[in-house]
Every structure is written in structure tokens, then in C-alpha cells.
Write the C-alpha cells for this entry.
Amino acid sequence: MEKEWDIVEVLRHSRHDWLNRLQLIKGNLDLNRIDRAKAYINEIVIEVQHESKLSNFHLPKFASLLLKSNWESHLFQLEYEVLNDLEAVKINDHILSNWTKAFFSVLDQAIEAFQENHLSITIQPQSDGVRFFFDFSGIIIKKELIEQFLEASENDVMVKEFSENELGLEVFMSVM
């Protein structure tokens, strides 16, 4: 069952994240690590720019899924980037969100807990649709679960790489 997020809960998580970021910057400044503080600020700016692009992409369910992902109890850390500012292409938000939710669930079941598991999603809008690159690095202990999920997938999924430590997928969603 999917957790319902209310506005107060979202703001609480967001405020907590921002407080942690400010404390890292302050700590580096207190230790006179000006370059490290500036580098961290630059990382934050880039992350917020990707967050803004994602939010403006007119895929509310998918954007919500990614934005709250690291606040949920996944066994991986998520990061994402939107490669360009093309005008939003109309694709099926419902299908994309459901497929991504199911992929996250299978991934959680297939990877080893308490490891440095990392999932990166790159979003590349194009005139005829959108390409999504899912790149996982970590420890996969149940490859068969992922294989079964990919075989049953109705989306256009291309496996780029698949081993015990890496998984690379390309998903294409065409214009509606």
C-alpha cells in the first residue's frame, strides 16, 4: 500500500534536508574550508535546477515519486537529472509512474540491504518522446527478480548492462 504524503509531512522532510545542508556548509565554513563549502553550494544549485526541470515537466505523479523517493525506506539512494529544457512532451504519466514504482519495489527486493546502492535516472526529452536511463550500482543478490520484471514489462525497455554490481536500462516513452 502506498503512503499518502500530506503537505505538512512533505514540508517537514524538506526542512530537515535543508537544515542538514546548511549545517554542512556552516561546518565547512567554521573549519575554514571555503572551497569545500563553495563546492557543496554548487552541488546544491545543480540539484535544485534538476528538481525545477523535473517539476516543470508536467509529469506530476512521476515527479512526486522521484522527489519523495529518498524520504521513503528504499534500499538505494536516488539521484536524477533532466538533460535539457525542451518543452514538455506529452507522455503517459500514469504508465511511467506505475512502471517506475514497480521497478523501485523489485529493485528493493533484489539488492542487498545496508550497502552503497545507488540509482541514477537521467531524463532526456526528445521531439518524439522521452528516454529514461536507469543506472544502478550496488549489490544485486536476486538477479532473477529483475529479469522476471523486465520480461513482463510492457514498456519499451532496453537492457544496456546487467551484472551483480550494475544494471543499466533505457526506457523510451513515446508521445501520446
About this structure: The two ends are 29 Å apart (CA to CA). The helical segments are 7-30, 34-55, 60-69, 93-110, 143-152. Residues 79 and 171 are 17 Å apart (CA to CA). The mean pLDDT is 91.
